Automatic annotation (TrEMBL):
Name of protein: PH domain protein
Claim: Phosphoprotein is one of the keywords in the record: yes
Residue stretches making up the PH domain: 316-426
Composition bias type Acidic residues, residue spans: 34-44
Region (Disordered): 1-45, 430-501
Pfam families documented for this protein: BAR_4 (PF20400), PH_20 (PF20399)
Keyword Phosphoprotein part of the UniProt annotation: yes
Comp. bias intervals (Polar residues): 1-20, 436-461
């Protein structure tokens, strides 16, 4: 006869993977539980909470990417507006555009090329914004939605399993406590009668029954969580693959934009480099050859220029050349060389030199000859009395009538000068200019010997007295002149006697 088997000896369901370790002795984060505890003191939703928190992290990560792409799209739109501002700087026609050649390979074409390529950049940024919003961003939004749905599934599925485990554990714990209560009562008073349902034997079997159901629920919940964890690995692979594909599209889009922009700028550069350095200038010269200076034309020269009255007879000197004049200024003594001219206007002018170009040819001394008196010739010397009417240094120093002594290089030159000055004093300067406008210095009827006779020309004393009466000669000068007159008369008488012999 077979021995009866106790219900306790029958096989009960066991918890899977519950080898006694340090990790299973305490409440583990991964949902492990102790094998020797009928009702483990653990949070059945701890694993679910951790997985939900991880899904939340992925969801936020996806949100950051959405914000990144969305902000990039906004920047692209802003960039298009900025390039519209850049385009406006060259949208107006070029000022003074007629200075540039309107044909190919010129500055005008370069600006047209800049306008077209800059407009291309405006369109490119708008197109990039459209692609970011229409292709990249929707992919991330769908991924975001998938993560949210995954979290909902986890909450609904894991919550049911956790609730069932918690309920089974509560029933098991209740019967364990009831078993302990009645087992202690039987131990204390064995003679006391108890209810059949409270028999510790019956209660123990009831605990086994409920513990079995609890373990089944725990293992079912565990299997569900394991399935969720396994699906998490696949789901995260999907998340990362989606992100990687999105970034690949993003790279293709933005990288292509950079390549296009580089190509547009390269086209602008090529348009500018195609202009030959002298292209615009040569065309400008051709268009304005009537205004610009011809480099092949000869430079202006005084020898090629004429002007009204350039050769008028009044502009030609009666005589001109170098003379020496005795200085009358202060302690200076001797003769100073100057350039003298007798003009048809009957002036005797003194200049520093005969150069009309280095400095202004202003006379340093000017004598109006009709108001002057000329003395006789003494070899290469002769003298003229009169008032300097110039604004030069000599004229400023001598405002009164004074006698100026001149010295020519040869007696013949002195005679020419004397005759010319004499003719102007006598009022014949204009006649000389009319008959011979180009420096007509001809000898007069007066012989050199006769010209040296001052009394034959004009009595010096009578003229000087006349000037003195007009107040043009100082008294001291007049007295000196009277003495010189007496000496001159004596010399004349001696010369006449010699001639008679």
């Amino acid at each position: 006869m077979a021995s009866p088997t106790s219900p306790a000896s029958q096989g009960l369901p066991t918890r899977s993977n519950t080898v006694r370790t340090t990790a299973t002795a305490t409440t583990a984060t991964g949902g492990g539980m102790s094998d020797d505890e009928a009702v483990p003191d653990e949070n059945t939703s701890e694993t679910t909470a951790l997985l939900l928190e991880r899904l939340q992290a992925w969801k936020h990560m996806c949100g950051y990417l959405e914000d990144y792409v969305s902000s990039t799209a906004k920047v692209q739109k802003s960039q298009s507006k900025d390039y519209e501002k850049i385009l406006k700087t060259i949208s107006e026609p070029l000022r003074e555009a007629h200075h540039f050649n309107s044909g190919p390979n010129g500055v005008t074409e370069m600006f047209e090329n800049m306008k077209a390529n800059t407009q291309g950049m405006v369109n490119m940024y708008l197109e990039t914004e459209k692609n970011l919003k229409g292709t990249i961003l929707p992919t991330l939004e769908r991924l975001h939605k998938e993560i949210k749905n995954k979290a909902k599934e986890l909450k609904s599925g894991a919550a049911k399993g956790s609730k069932a485990v918690d309920k089974a554990r509560a029933l098991t714990q209740k019967h364990i406590e009831l078993l302990g209560q009645h087992a202690a009562a039987v131990e204390a008073a064995a003679s006391n009668k108890i209810e059949p349902s409270n028999d510790p034997y019956v209660l123990r079997r009831g605990v086994n029954y409920r513990l079995n159901k609890q373990i089944i629920e725990e293992n079912n919940n565990r299997n569900d969580i394991l399935a969720v964890q396994h699906s998490f690995q696949q789901f995260e692979n999907h998340i990362l693959q989606t992100v990687q594909n999105t970034f690949n599209q993003f790279f293709q889009l933005m990288g292509g934009q950079n390549d296009r922009q580089r190509a547009l700028y390269a086209d602008i550069l090529s348009s500018a480099q195609k202009i030959p350095p002298d292209y615009e200038w040569l065309n400008f010269v051709m268009r304005n050859e009537g205004v610009l200076v011809n480099p092949d034309a000869p430079a202006r020269s005084m020898s090629n220029i004429t002007y009204p009255n350039q050769d008028h007879r009044a502009t030609k000197s009666l005589i001109e050349g170098t003379l020496e004049r005795k200085s009358r200024a202060g302690i200076l003594k001797g003769y100073n060389t100057g350039y003298f001219v007798v003009t048809p206007a009957r002036y005797l002018h003194e200049f520093k030199d005969n150069d009309d170009f280095r400095h202004e040819p202003t006379p340093e001394l000017s004598l109006y000859l009709p108001d002057c008196v000329i003395g006789g010739i003494d070899g290469v010397k002769f003298s003229v009395k009169g008032k300097d009417v110039s604004s030069g240094k000599v004229g400023n120093a001598f405002h009164t009538t004074t006698e100026l002594h001149f010295k020519a290089s040869t007696p013949a030159d002195a005679e020419k000068w004397w005759n010319t000055v004499k003719s102007c004093i006598d009022g014949q300067g204009a006649h000389h200019a009319a008959t011979s406008p180009i420096s007509p210095i001809a000898s007069t009827a007066t012989t050199p010997a006769g010209s040296r006779n001052v009394s034959a020309v004009q009595p010096s004393g009578s003229l000087e007295k006349e000037l003195e009466a007009k107040g043009e000669i100082p008294e001291t000068t007049a007295a000196q002149d009277h003495a010189e007159e007496a000496t001159a008369q004596a010399a004349t008488e001696g010369a006449g006697a010699t001639k008679k012999e």
